[in-house]
Amino acid sequence: MKKLASFLMAFSLLIASLAWLSFAKPVYAANFHNVTQNVSHISLHSVHILANRADAKLPDVYGDKIDLNNTNVRAFQQFPGFYPTLARKVIVNAPYEKVEDALEIKGLSKRQRSLLESHLEDFTVTKAEAFFNEGADRFNNGIYR
User: Fold this and answer.
1) DSSP letters along the chain, please?
2) Element (H or E) spanning 123, and its range?
């Protein structure tokens, strides 16, 4: 019985390894049609970098200034008194056409309005983009420091 079990185990491992090998994806080399022919010094004439709109906008959203239309609540942590209550109010009332529009949020206390006024130069406004505003990402985007 032990010999039969050992044989079946070895046979199933062999079959599994053969199946695994047959489903392997082919590997393709990079497109080198623009590589110079000089083998001692290979250089690429053109390099294509793939990027999407979100990547292009990241410096605006997470740059030196906070983008009121696209950033998340956590970005306001650097300013005492903003996180989480005032930051949430700013985000919930977006989008804004200009930074000063944030001062018009209904229900701001005098202290909150004064905090916003004192940091207007730290904010910017760009077009609201869905990839930064979908779902609850502005409140919890899963990026923790």
Assistant:
1) -HHHHHHHHHHHHHHHHHHHHHTPPP------TTB-S-TTS--BS-------HHHHHHHHHBSSSEETTT--GGGGGGSTTTTTHHHHHHHHT---SSGGGGGG-TT--HHHHHHHHHTGGGEE-----HHHHSTTTTT--S---
2) strand 123-124
Rounded Cα distance, 30 and 68, in Å? 41
What is the residue-averaged pLDDT of the chain? 76
Which amino acid is located at 62 in the chain? Y
**pTM for this entry:** 0.56
**Based on C-alpha coordinates, what's the Rg of the chain?**
28
Res. 71 pLDDT band, cuts 50 70 90: confident
